[in-house]
TrEMBL record:
Similarity comment: family membership: Belongs to the nitroreductase family.
Keywords assigned by UniProt, alphabetized: Cytoplasm, Nucleus, Oxidoreductase
Entries under CDD domains matching the protein: Frm2-like
A single Gene Ontology CC term: cytoplasm
Species this protein is from: Podospora didyma
Annotated compartments: Cytoplasm; Nucleus
Protein name: Nitroreductase-like protein
Amino acid sequence: MYMYQGHIHCSHRLLHLTFTRPLAFSSTHPSELLVLPISMQRLAYSPAIRALSSSSSLRTASSLQRFVAAAPLQATTTRLLPSRRPSSRSFTTTPTIMSSTVAGGANALLDLIKNRRSHYALNKDLTISPERVQEIVKEALQHVPSSFNSQSNRVVVLFGAEHDKFWDITTEVLKGMVPEDKWEATAGRMAMFKGGAGTILFFEDVTVVEGMQAKFALYADRFPVWATQSTGMLQHTLWVALEAEGLGANLQHYNPIVDAKVADEWKLPATWKLNAQLVFGGKSAEAGEKAFGPIEEKLKVFGA
Ligand SMILES: Cc1cc2nc3c(=O)[nH]c(=O)nc-3n(C[C@H](O)[C@H](O)[C@H](O)COP(=O)(O)O)c2cc1C
């Protein structure tokens, strides 16, 4: 068990927290300090913070959140390694900045990935600002990889009335396609999605894909596949990120039936091909149970 007391320097690839007020807490692994998730909500669930909550005067999530909210935040992109093992049980620490690997450094990311679920019961209570959502989208859109760094991903974010409009358009299109006896279920689903606070539309720019095909003829048949893989990476990143900020989301695919109307409504380039829609909002209910097949059937490892 490590004991920390004094000023704590926590870091994350995207966020650097500098707590200038003294605090004390215990942790079984010092690297937990370095991988605290960004949002207050997630902070409350971090093992290090849980330990902190129970071992210091910050005994409740809300007092912890007040404490963290009052702490000065400072953005940085540095990676930090675990602080050195303390020589005494009580000390002031600042972790060492290094560029080598960190065993356990992926755990916070894996926790965020495990925490992401399909949330269908959503409401319009956007618990973070639209600006914050946009910030997350921008970061993900810029940093998620694409083949040959072709940057084929395009995104439209719809909030409020614009989100409602998307689901009205989808409802109208489906009304002309779904048999009368099936309409009630479809209408219920549309109302459910419209009940969310926003929708992220994921596109790929076909001119980028075609440009890559022309430039690298050898891989011509691969570029559309790689563009789809890249949008999948972006979708997952944003899904995980929104959940990490306390929102719920679910992924839908009403393309291609709505593509023309969407392009017309939001004056989008005809070359933007719609791939998916991520509906997001406040969570009205927890996600349902999820079953997992045996990992042994999914993974083979050699040479370890
Ligand atoms: C590529 C992909 C396509 C999906 N398409 C839909 C969809 O069209 N409609 C839907 O309700 N859920 C869709 N989902 C959500 C999955 O059904 C869901 O992720 C899966 O059942 C696991 O549940 P979880 O998201 O709660 O972990 C899709 C998920 C993926 C990864």
